[in-house]
Specification:
The protein is mostly helical and 106 residues long. It has one domain: Chorismate mutase (Chorismate Mutase Domain, subunit A, Up-down Bundle), CATH 1.20.59. It has 3 helices and no strands.
Amino acid sequence: MGKTAENCQTMADIRLEIDRIDRALMALFAERWGYIGRAAEIKGPQGLKADIPERVEEVVANAGRNAVAAGLEPEFYQAIWRQLIAQSIAHEKAILGEKDENGSAR
């Protein structure tokens, strides 16, 4: 565990802590990405599509609630989650071999 923001005395301290947090976030995104690939593997045999709009909205709403609980602006984090979800869906579509609306493989 690093320093708290209040314990940082210099910009070097702040930068070190931000870099530490960014590495931790990337590790969490990598862990999440592993579940995305596995979800596609499970969806295939069940005949489920990569894009399940109801689930997308549920995840975005969860992001908003989690942001509020953390004292953050929900709209900003919901927008980030929409991008994260869009990338995840594209990855799942590639694994599942789903075609886009023009009939091309994604």
